[in-house]
Amino acid sequence: MTTTLPDPMTADSYRPVTTDWVYPSEDVVQAAHVQDYEAEYQRAVQDPQRFWAERAATLDWFQEWEQVLDDSQAPFYKWFVGGKLNIAYNCLDRHNKTWRRNKIALIWEGEDGDRRTYSFHRLTIEVNKFANVLKSLGVKRGDRVTIYMGRIPELMMAMLACAKIGAVHSVVYGGFSEQALADRIEDAQSKVLITADGAWLRGKIVPLKDTVDKAVHNSPVVESILVVKRTGHGVNMEQGRDYWYHDLMHLPIASPRCEAEVMDAEDPLFILYTSGDHRAAQGRAAHPRRLCGLYLHHPALRF
Predict the structure, then answer these.
(1) In this predicted structure, what is the pLDDT of residue 229?
(2) What mean pLDDT, rounded, does the chain reach?
(3) CATH number at residue 229
(4) Residue 45 lies in a domain
(5) What is the DSSP string of 160-199?
(6) What CA–CA distance (Å, rounded) separates 109 from 126?
């Protein structure tokens, strides 16, 4: 017998956890990128190609698109056909040419009270060094890189570093089991995996590297593992396969300069597995590839 649970977010069943709503001040509203959501929404509905073309014009393109939307093979749509760009370049590099160069781009505070801030300039340098480290491990355009980490700045740097050199990243939630991780590694055919020794969660250590070791044993496709030192507890490091992130970042291979790979707007950016319960066979059908050109517009519009 199958029991269907009610949708918790329907109008009839949803109950907010609080009734104390805090509305933004007029100054915040005036400074917002989207000041009138309904008006913007109606513009997008009435003429979606013109709306997204206007948004695309706010980004930096190496080559402008020839066609906003190709719907000739619907529902397999193609956006910004012929356009060339790079996600990481738009997130970081272009801001280094403006007053934002020294503006804070990332503020991070860990569970244990650690706090780090990065300006656009410093974050660009860290991402470039990270990207060059990945290159030294053999990562190139089109390769898939699995990321299995806690919520630390290096997680974001890893994603941006992959985008900088045209690699496709697959972020796996750090709470997944070794088998769930192994399934995703196998499906993506990732030869390089990025992780940390561990992560902090409610005062306890989540042994990420231990889980990775078990997953790689089940999915031996991985050739190199890059490990960020976060908790500092002892972990197994296999010679010739495992590398400490901080060691490689201090070598000459980690140059602070890295040219952005010119990507087609339809090139894949990342792989997202939609369920923690899916095994590899189901995961292949479940992971939509997010495209470089289309995906970048949403954060650019909102932030």
Answers:
(1) 96
(2) 87
(3) 3.40.50.12780
(4) no
(5) HHHHHHTPEEEE--TTS-HHHHHHHHHHHT-SEEEEES-E
(6) 18
Prior bond to 75 cis, omega within 30? Answer: yes
Rounded to whole angstroms, the Cα distance separating 187 from 162 reads: 18
Encode pLDDT of 202-219 as tens digits.
Answer: 889 999 999 999 999 988
Domains held by the chain: number: 1
Contact 229, 198 (CB under 8 A): no
Considering the entire predicted model, what is its pTM? Answer: 0.85
**Amino acid code (one letter) for 269:** L
| Tokens standing for residue 288 | 């939509």
User: Is the distance from CB of 212 to CB of 195 less than 8 angstroms?
Assistant: yes
Question: Is residue 16 in some structural domain?
Answer: no
Domain for residue 46, yes or no? no
* Model confidence pLDDT, tens digit, residues 132-190: 999 999 999 999 999 999 999 999 999 999 999 999 999 999 989 999 999 999 999 99
Q: What is the pLDDT of residue 14?
A: 57
133 domain residue, yes or no: yes
Look up the domain containing 183 and give its range: 53-302
pLDDT at 284: 38
Element (H, E) at 145: strand 144-148
- CA 266 to mean position of chain CA atoms: 17
What does the block give as tokens for 83?
A: 């356009």
Scan for tokens 């008006």, then name that residue.
39
Handedness of CA 261, 262, 267, 270 (dihedral sign): positive
| Alpha helix ranges (H) inside 198-271 | 208-218, 245-249
